[in-house]
Amino acid sequence: MIRILSALMIGLLFGTGIALSGMANPAKVLNFFDFAGTWDPSLAFVMGGALIVTALGYFFVLKRQTPLFEPQFHLPARRDIDLPLIAGSAIFGLGWGIAGFCPGGAIPAMGLGQADAWIFAGAMIAGIALARLARHSLATHAAARAG
Amino acid sequence: MTEFTPLLSLAGGSLIGFAAVLLMAFHGRIAGMTGILSGLVPPFSHDWGWRAAFLLGAVAAPALIVAATGFAIPFDSATPAPWLVVGGLIVGIGVYFGSGCTSGHGVCGMARLSPRSIIATLTFMASTVATVFVIRHLLGGLS
Fold first, then answer.
1. ipTM of this complex
2. Could you please report the per-residue DSSP string of A34-62?
């Protein structure tokens, strides 16, 4: 119960940060990327603030052996740069530039009751599900062949 | 045009960072929206409880701010619905194969100086700049 409540409170904090920062506003996001037009540099301050706090916080938190509610830290161990990382990121940027929503911005934007956020988030979740099923069935297929 | 809001954006960004630190300290997890969402779609992860709770909090926060303070959170979207669907699908597929988005790679990964996250962030930022330039200045907007 404490784990669920804690995750709920942290989600509230995250959503509050996104909403106040402007990351949930597609117009503001698109203007940040529009150097040749109506450039609004605000989002550089979002990234700066988030990075400073996270880097400092992680420095102290990761000195511990374990997190408070779990037996271990779940940190990505990979350091290689592969094609899915680059191609997937480039594809993400294409979609971000089309609509002005990134995943972390779109989900809290739903809480503003705006139809655009719900349409985008629905399609985005469908996209993640499709990609996850595709990778899952490919892996199953490969395992069946190897077996 | 949107208003330049350095202080509000810095405060919001710091809160995002604070949430990321707490999720690591309490749950040992990266606060990446892509990773959190990925466990909530088929084939489902077994640990959906904290993921669903985090998402519920993230969606509820703006509604609570508006209800409690009356602060009008600026929101302006001019993208036609068909393009929202196309953009959403593209973002979903891209972040899944790219293993993260602005929160996971851009904040949590870069804060750990992960080479994959730094490359991913530079890649999607460049791709977004190019996309916005083409749409706004070469095509004259989406219709």
1. 0.96
2. -TTSS--THHHHHHHHHHHHHHHHHHHHT
